[in-house]
Write a structure and sequence with these properties.
Largest sheet: none
Structural class: mainly alpha
Strand content: under 5%
Number of helices: 3
Shape: elongated
Number of strands: 0
Order of helices and strands: HHH
Amino acid sequence: MTAPTPPPNGQAAQPRNGLGIAGFVLGLLAALLVLLPSVGVIVSGVTIGVPLSILGVLFGILGILRARKGLATNKGLAIAGTTLAAIGLVTCIVWIGAFSIAV
């Protein structure tokens, strides 16, 4: 076993995009949870899906902004997270609207 070689003197380690990753994970969870009608509305849409979606959009946007400034990498993951979270939020709103009209 050999120890990993450090980067050359002129190069620093690549910055990561923790906010973009967090946005992606939250957006993915929200988008998956709201696909189930009973879980999506009763549990996920009201108590879990909406906050997950909102936080996913916020973290994804912050990750995109950090990547634009050059402070972070993997801008694509932040964009995917923002998109998934927005889809989850719209789906939550549709489910809540559909079930509130039915009642």
